[in-house]
Amino acid sequence: MDFVHESLPCGLEYGVTPLPHRHVVAFQIRVLAGASVEPIEKLGLARLVTETIDKGTEKRTGRELSDAFDAIGAGRRGSTGRESTTFTCTVLPEHFEEAMALHAEFLRTPTFPQDVFEVNLQLASQELLALEDDAHGLADKLLGQKAYGPVLGRHPLGEAETLERITRDDLESHCRSCFHAGRMVIAVAGAVEPDRVADTLGRYFDGFGPAVQDGRSPFLVEFSAGTTHYPKELEQEQIGICWPALDATHDDFSAQQVMLGVLSGGMSGRLFTEIREKQGLVYWVNAWHETPRGSGMIFLGASTTPQRCDQTYATLLREVDRLAEDIEQDELDRAVTGIVAGLETRGDSTRARCGELGSDLFFFGRPRSDEERVARVQAVTVEDVRRYLTTYPRDPRCVVTLGPRALAGEIGEGDCCVADKKV
Question: How much is the pLDDT for 423?
Answer without folding.
Answer: 64
